[in-house]
């Protein structure tokens, strides 16, 4: 397991196929993903894991498994949707329901900002969340993102609060 960052309680690691059962608890869970355009079909979750693994290999940044250091359990994911350029990346994070309210998302999101700073190419990190996802919106503000305004997103077919963080 390739560890890319460590915090007091968490490891951020490159996803492995062995993480599939954990991934089903967040990306494959309708309740967890209700405000994020719905759950991903369990049949394609291995492809998602593989895509994030390859993104890390090629670009040096990706979405990572967030692992509890004490239990070795995958609690969720955090990292970056990377397009063709690394100058601007999008921060995302998703956690299993049993991990909510324990500060893991905030801790992992802060770690991701450090990863972006250390990468060397990233200049801007963007983020958005459903206007109903008050927990995620609070996290973005707590870790230093600036609210830019409301922005339409085709994938979720709604206007969402849009944030930026300049590296």
Brief digest:
The protein is an alpha+beta fold and 167 residues long. It has helices spanning 20-23, 45-59, 104-119, 134-142, and strands at 3-6, 10-13, 63-68, 74-82, 88-95, 124-128, 146-153, 158-166.
List the helices and strands and how they pair.
Elements: E1 3-6, E2 10-13, H1 20-23, H2 45-59, E3 63-68, E4 74-82, E5 88-95, H3 104-119, E6 124-128, H4 134-142, E7 146-153, E8 158-166
Parallel strand pairs: 5-6
Antiparallel strand pairs: 1-2, 2-3, 3-4, 4-5, 6-8, 7-8
Number of strands: 8
β content, as a range?
A: 25-35%
CATH architectural type: 3-Layer(aba) Sandwich
| Regions with little confidence, pLDDT below 50 for 5+ residues | none
What would you give as the CATH superfamily? Answer: Gcn5-related N-acetyltransferase (GNAT)
Biggest beta-sheet profile: 8 strands, mixed
Lateral arrangement of strands in the main beta sheet: 1-2-3-4-5-6-8-7
State the CATH class. Alpha Beta
Strand/helix succession:
EEHHEEEHEHEE
End-to-end gap? 28 Å
Q: How many domains in all?
A: 1
Radius of gyration over C-alpha positions, nearest whole angstrom: 15 Å
Average pLDDT confidence is 95
Helix content: 25-40%
**Which structural class matches the secondary elements?**
alpha+beta
**What is the assembly state of the chains in this entry?**
single chain
Count up the helices: 4
